[in-house]
Design a protein that fits this description.
This protein is of the alpha+beta class. Helices cover about 35% and strands about 20% of the residues. The chain has 2 domains: about 240 residues, FAD/NAD(P)-binding domain; about 150 residues, no CATH class. Strands 1, 2, 10, 11, 12, 13, 21 and 22 form an 8-stranded mixed sheet that branches. Strands 8-7-15-16-17-14-20 form a 7-stranded mixed sheet, with helices on both faces. The chain has a 3-stranded antiparallel sheet with strand order 5-9-6, with no helix packed on it. The two termini are about 45 Å apart.
Length: about 550
Amino acid sequence: MALGNSPSVYYDAIVIGAGHNGLTCACYLAKAGLKVLVLEDYCLIGGMTLTEEITLPGFKSDIHAFGYSLATLSPVPNELDLKSHGFELIHPEISISHLFPNNHGHISIYKSLEKTLESIKKYSERDARSWKKIFDEYMTNRDKIVSVLNLPPVTPLEDTGSVSTENTDKVEALEVIGDTYRLRTQSMRSWCNENFESDEAKAMFGSFAPFVGLSPDDAGGGDLCYLFSAIMQDGGNNVVKGGFVNLPMALANYLQSRGGQIMTNSRVKKIMIENGQATGVELANGKMIGAKKLVASSTDPSTLILNLIGEEYVDSHLTSGIKRMEWGDAIFGIYLALNGPLEYKSGQEILSKSPQVHLSPPGLEFFSKIYYQCRSGKPPTNPLSIMSNDSMMDPTRVISNENNSNKNHLIKFLVLSVPYEIKNADGEIGKEIEWENFKERYTDQIIETINQNYIPNLNTSILKKTIYSPVDYEKKPINSIKGTLASGAILPYQSGWMRPIPQLGNYKIPSISNVYLCGAGSHPGPGVSMAPGRNAAQVILRDLGIDLRAIFTTY
């Protein structure tokens, strides 16, 4: 590198991406005494926890994440004392509800297990007993689950003590291994049919698999239904007061209190590599910033390997693995500013107090049709809509209208599992032009279906709507590759130590000693857990020879 092109400023560590995982990693590095810089491409921090006024001024929509549930198992808020940096949660009594069409009722998960069981009993006493058994099993294994989430993954070669045969004969040990493997790979349909008899309970608990783009028959869907529903039963589905962005804002405040810095509107063009080590980054504007110790990236793995590093610096097998990564199905978003509260066909008092409401008929065939259409390149005619009840949970999300006797409200419909590319009747593939031409009509179709079957005053309550197609999501932020949420589909071979691919399962780049992954493309994956960022920081600081006991809680 020529002297004239050398960086003019140096940091110990550069973190690419100011989403909640990138900021979490940066906070722990700063806590350990490193001089840290976070670079963010977008004009605001937040990433998948971004909050913006995209409908009307004063109406604060969470663009992606809304419910704070998985993060209830995270030690980060306590370890970084985020409460003192402006982080505050609202704790609704109800975690989530599933509304069935045309006065067919609803099932709700409450913080109270007994109330959840009463809600399920309306449809099946057996299903209520089954849920209690499942949740009791979760509570027995809770400490292990928390540990698995909040520690770097263990490879099979390292996991020699997972089943002890000292006091167990060989047959029993094999049963334990077999049951564990079955649960990890069981499909949503298999898991629901095994545990529930009513179509209502199957739809309620089965709807957690589509949250991460898994169809009824995709491997691993059952395990995710079990985990997500049990975690909500355990810690609730909480709401970040003032908008989800206040989580990354609190992380940013902590980081800055430790001397860390954040630069927005700063797209990284390249990570500079010399002799198998990162020496810094080059920004899109040509500016170069030096890194004395390391670079960590919370971008998706494909962007990191193929664009920021470059194929010439990594093994061809690694490149091949990245290029065959599966991204999963895309999402579609409808953000609505309302002139008053919604009226439901059933369960008015309960549903108005639910942070999120799933809308679907009972049974699993509804989901099967969605995935058949989506994976055939057609937007589902009757998709699964996840409604976030933004302002009913947090009145600070909207401004009052003095000329309106009803208080204004704000909701979001996140429509799961739509195609990134629309396949036309003649077999041609469209993307940006097709979605731009179709998204208004598709939104009207979805709203009309919801209006007729679930919420009869929805149409007349809309002040303003904003629509994001998969192509729109891909533009903001850049981690929404192909309009998806997860930075790589959640499949058995893209999970745990194999996430995103086995060569990168330890958050490290094999051929470059000081570049790390710290985003949702790594274990444990998507959702707001802060775990990928915290886990990566554990690996980084261990490599730097820093005593982790002074930085992290030990599990």
